[in-house]
Amino acid sequence: MKEMIATGKTLEEIREKWSQEWGCDPKELQIETIEKPGVFNRLYKVNVILSEPVKQDILQEDAREEDTRVVWDEVRYTIYPGSQVQSIIPYPQAGKLFMLGNEIAYEMPVNKGDTFEFYPLVQQGELSWQIAVEPDGSKAVARVRHARAGKFVLTNSLPNYSQLVLEQHVSWDAFPEPDELPTEADLLKQIEESGIVHGIKSNLWANFMDVDGESEIVIAEATLPIPTVQPQLIDYVGEPVFQNEESNEDKIDYFACKIVLCQKDDTLARKIPGKEGIPGTNIFGKATQVDKIKDFIITLKKNVYLTENMEVKASCSGTPVRVNKNTYLVENAFILNKDVDLSTGSIDFPGDVFIGGNVADGLYVHSSGTIKVQGSVSGADIKAETGLVVRNNIIASKILVGEKHVSISEFIKTMHEVSEELTLCVHQIEQLQGASTNTSVGQLFKVILEKNFQQLPKKVEELERLLNSQEPGFVSQELDLAIRSMKHFMIGLGPLQLKDTLYLKNALKIIGFFMATKGLAASVSVLCDVSYVQNSEIGCAGDFFCHKGVYNSILKIEGGIKIHGVCRGGEISCSGDLYIWELGGSNISATTIKASKNSHINIEFCHANIKIFIGKELIKIDEPAQKIDIFRDKGNLQVGKLRWDGSTR
User: Which residues contact 533 (CB under 8 A, 6 or more apart)?
Assistant: First the structure.
């Protein structure tokens, strides 16, 4: 008895292997499973046992078993199955199997004494092709048939298995290719005769010889053309006003309830350049043409410019207009010869605005330029950046002229106050340094801030807030750093971190240079020119001029004020000079005037109950007066006035 521990993927595989190893029939083997496949081991582990025959007659019977024999007669193989063969499976791809003159196509049982004939497939070798060309010359394809020379050979020794599979026992015996087969020269000649001269593939003959059976091989392909990319205009404005190229700008209607606005340097259109195409070539060598490039020119009218990147941009704020297909302009004025009411809606326009009628309650008119109103403004909101003219009354409205300049003016004013107080603070620190050599500069700075300049840190914080709202380019990098350094040394534990007053002095020096160079240049000449104002609030970065009167209103004017009429009630603030024909009135609320310390004030007629602040100094007018003249002479405040009985003017 034979016994062996073996492993394998399947029990059949193990049985087949050891039956061949021990030269026995697989059925004679006894398989005892020791371990089945698992997660860590994918193989069977078994005990293979071959029992030896006990009886002598069995040995004699095995000795009489016949082996499978094969006889070749140069035409066919005659197969004599052994005594153990129970079935035979043909292999049609290698040849035909016959029994008693009948072809066998499927597995067939084998009986004792059966004989089979196997005629192997013999090929003499064949190579042929057919070339098909696309009508447009884009491609040529060959249908190749290649049969290799040779024959199938059956092995001389077949095993005495129960199942005889011919496929496992045949092999291919190749012959030399016949001399009469087509050659590479024949292929190239046929290609030339087909008129193919371009795009022929390399290694064609090697590809033909690699074919085993039938296959399609691309012989040649055309070089495809690269199409022309036409230039494009990407428009951001809208449909053109005129469809034809010739147009009259004077006929453009700019009025619309909803206005499309643009800011300075906004992109109105973009031209994407075209690219000339590259012609192709078909397999016959003929060129494949491409479209010619069709370029166009962008026509620039007023208030637009063209960048290097072929972008049409606005040179000012306003209404962009696409006059025709490739023509652009920006109109920086909006003219409305009617009232601003619910039928028109409010106006927000980046250029000048001219209104021929009134502005109704609840609406607004905003402009980055000048606003001119021929009628009245009632219960409305008006914002004009460079100037305002209202020919009739302003009633219960809010007016702001030069909003950006107001911010600049406030920035400069706050900077001036911080500079004055910080200069005094530094001076006091240096005085105390001489008397107290053991105390650090930071400690002295902290004590002086808390005792004498309690509002200075808040003013510096406000200065930084105003700094952040300024337009780029107005504030230098040095000034930005100086203001932020001052805040650093004044907020929280910052005062104690100060090692030397030199840091504060340098900041003051930078502020002083800015005030000397840009402080005066920042003032603007915007003008708010009105006729009559009542119960309104007006802010202006420049001068204010009123033809008739101002009643119960609040005026905040950065420039000078001239009121050629009556001013009664409310509050007036100005940074420049002030002239009023008649101020105040009997039996009405107090009228307050706040002017800068260097303002020059002239009042022709003044009623009682008037408060006038000149800087931080207060002047009360408790009785009627005329010809009031308030000014400073060598730093001293001077007040001149005459008595007035309040009756005649």
Answer: 393, 394, 546, 549, 550, 551, 553
Distance CA 322, CA 19 (A): 94
Q: Does one domain contain both 544 and 590?
A: yes
Whether 587 is covered by a domain: the verdict is: yes
Report the DSSP beta bridge partners of residue 20. Answer: none
Q: What is the mean pLDDT of residues 238-263?
A: 60
Model confidence at 532: pLDDT above 90: yes
pLDDT at 649: 57
- Residue 434 pLDDT greater than 60, yes or no: yes
For residue 199, what are the contacts with CB-CB under 8 A and spacing of at least 6? 220, 221, 222, 223, 281, 282, 283
Q: Which of 39-48, 91-100, 398-407 has the highest mean pLDDT?
A: 91-100
> Does 109 share its domain with 197?
yes
User: Is residue 340 included in any domain, yes or no?
Assistant: no
Which amino acid type is present at position 519? G
What is the per-residue pLDDT across 160-177, written as a single tens digit (0 to 9) for each?
888 999 999 999 888 887
Instruction: Please indicate, yes or no, whether residues 529 and 380 belong to a single structural domain of this protein.
Output: yes
Q: Do 503 and 457 share a structural domain?
A: yes
Q: Give the type of residue at 185.
A: A
Q: Burial-class residue 433 by CB neighbours within 10 Å (0-12, 13-18, 19+).
A: middle
Domain final residue pick, 11, 39, 63: 63
Separation between Cα atoms, residue 184 and residue 166, nearest integer Å: 38
Average pLDDT over residues 292-315: 92
The whole domain housing 56 covers 2-63
pLDDT, residue 113, reads: 85
Last residue of a domain, one of 178, 202, 222: 222
User: CB atoms < 10 A from the CB of 437, how many?
Assistant: 6
Do 27 and 165 lie in a common domain? Answer: no
Residue 317 has pLDDT above 80, yes or no: no
As a whole number of angstroms, the distance between CA 102 and CA 282 comes to 57
Both 395 and 541 in one domain: the answer is: yes
Number of domains in the chain: 5
Give the end-to-end CA distance of the chain in Å, rounded to a whole number: 149
The pLDDT > 90 percentage for the chain reads 42
Average pLDDT over residues 457-478: 86
Q: What is the DSSP string of 479-539?
A: HHHHHHHHHHHHSTTGGGG---THHHHHHHHHHHHHIIIIITTT----EEEEEEEES-EEE
Helix (H, G, I), strand (E, B) or coil at 290: coil
Does residue 92 sit in the same domain as residue 194?
A: yes
**488 belongs to a structural domain:** yes
Res 64 pLDDT > 70: no
Dihedral, CA atoms, 594, 597, 600, 606, nearest 10 degrees?
A: 40
pLDDT value for 55: 46
* CB contact at 8 A, 408 and 522: yes
336 belongs to a structural domain: no
Residue 341 DSSP label: S
Instruction: Write down the pLDDT at residue 45.
Output: 83
Q: Encode burial over 47-77: b for 16+ CB neighbours within 10 A, e otherwise.
A: ebebeeeeeeeeeeeeeeeeebebeeeeebb
Q: Give 269-288 pLDDT, tens digit per residue.
A: 999 999 999 999 999 999 98
Q: Which residue reads 């292997």 in tokens? A: 17
Question: Distance between CA atoms of 610 and 568, rounded to whole angstroms?
Answer: 10
pLDDT at 114 > cutoff 70:
yes
Which bin fits 410, alpha (ψ -120 to 50), beta or left (φ > 0)?
alpha
